[in-house]
Design goal:
350 residues, binds 5-oxidanyl-1H-pyridin-2-one, eight-stranded antiparallel sheet
């Protein structure tokens, strides 16, 4: 449903408050041709109402001749910032960047964060933003879950459909996504509310069964049949099934990059205000599918890059696959059981 400017301005003011924006600080809104006009307008008003110096940096789109999907998270690595020193300088000189165009997984984003600039990604439509305004409780819950990952040596995942995967941990940090940027140099994504990490390089082995109803992103579809991934030494070595498997496999082959088959981030959803069924209510063009990535109790795994976590794999192919009904365990202790977050992971929502 449509939202009023007033409602969206209030939502932005809350997110900027949680992000500790102070009067006199510089906020730069990063936009492109896909930026939602109401989101831009209300973010500018909210930031200015809080006494910030507000700039806008509009960048031209890239990758049209390479990407097959229009989804901003589908083709990664090069962005309008690549080689754009003037734009990078402006963002490094800002206290807070509101990314309304998607820099995610870019070396430039990592470079800008290192300067202490905070970056908040927000590209879902206004009504999803308003429904998922983050809270301190989101932050506390995600932080507690990340501490469990930090202490663990292995994440294992099983499901009634036949998933049986073991992921050694320790080489990469646990990443918290809770929807606001309250520390210098922090990146986050509004909406979110999930925790993730990366398995040790070449360490993951087992089988992943993408079952009927599990979601493929950027395809933005619920699989209508099982797709079976064989994972050996950190890479999906076989993709088996029917036409769904063929569709996934051909799409991945189009990148002509073996690194796209690597297991990327793994984790689980903790956002009760996001839902598995929401994707079915939107056309592909109108959402990047954050409800699917954040709904409480999913097991979200990804194929492709690990540079976001400090790794050196920057493949352009990035696929996010949230699964239902999984049991996720850390060192043998379940944190999610059959798609329900247990108190260990961290279950009860205040
Ligand atoms: O917020 C995000 C979005 C996509 C992704 O792969 C990770 N986190």
């Amino acid at each position: 449903m449509a939202v009023s400017d007033y409602q969206l301005i209030e939502a932005w003011q809350e997110v900027l408050r949680l992000s500790k924006l102070e009067a006199g600080q510089t906020v730069t809104l990063l936009t492109s041709s896909t930026t939602h006009p109401q989101t831009l307008q209300c973010a500018q008003i909210a930031a200015q109402s809080m006494g910030a110096i507000v700039n806008r940096l509009d960048l031209l789109p890239v990758n049209a001749e390479k990407a097959l999907s229009r989804d901003s998270l589908a083709y990664l690595g090069t962005t309008p910032l690549t080689g754009n020193e003037a734009a990078i300088a402006a963002l490094k000189a800002s206290d807070l960047v509101l990314d309304l165009m998607t820099l995610l997984f870019s070396p430039e984003q990592i470079d800008i964060l290192k300067s202490g600039t905070k970056i908040l990604l927000a590209v879902e439509p206004p009504e999803i933003l308003v429904r998922t305004v983050p809270t301190e409780a989101d932050r506390a819950r995600v932080t507690a879950a990340a501490a469990l990952i930090k202490a663990a040596k292995e994440m294992s995942i099983t499901s009634p459909a036949g998933t049986n995967l073991r992921c050694p941990l320790g080489e990469f940090p646990a990443i918290r996504e809770y929807g606001f940027v309250d520390e210098p140099g922090r990146w986050d994504h509004w909406p979110s509310g999930f925790v993730l990490t990366w398995p040790n390089e070449r360490g993951t082995n087992g089988t992943i069964v993408i079952d009927k109803g599990d979601i493929l992103l950027p395809q933005k579809k619920y699989s209508t049949e099982q797709i079976i991934l064989t994972v050996e030494n950190g890479y999906a070595t076989k993709i088996e099934g029917g036409v769904e498997a063929e569709l996934l496999d051909e799409y991945m082959k189009s990148f002509n990059d073996p690194e796209g088959y690597a297991i990327s981030h793994i984790g689980w959803g903790l956002q009760p205000r996001c839902h598995w069924s929401t994707l079915g209510l939107y056309s592909r063009e109108n959402t990047i599918g954050m409800d699917a990535r954040a709904f409480e109790g999913n097991f979200l795994f990804s194929l492709g890059p690990n540079n976001e976590a400090g790794g050196n794999r920057t493949t352009a192919c990035h696929i996010d696959i949230p699964l239902r009904h999984c049991t996720v365990s850390l060192d043998g202790r379940a944190v999610v059981r059959d798609g329900n977050v247990l108190d260990g992971g961290v279950g009860e929502y205040e």
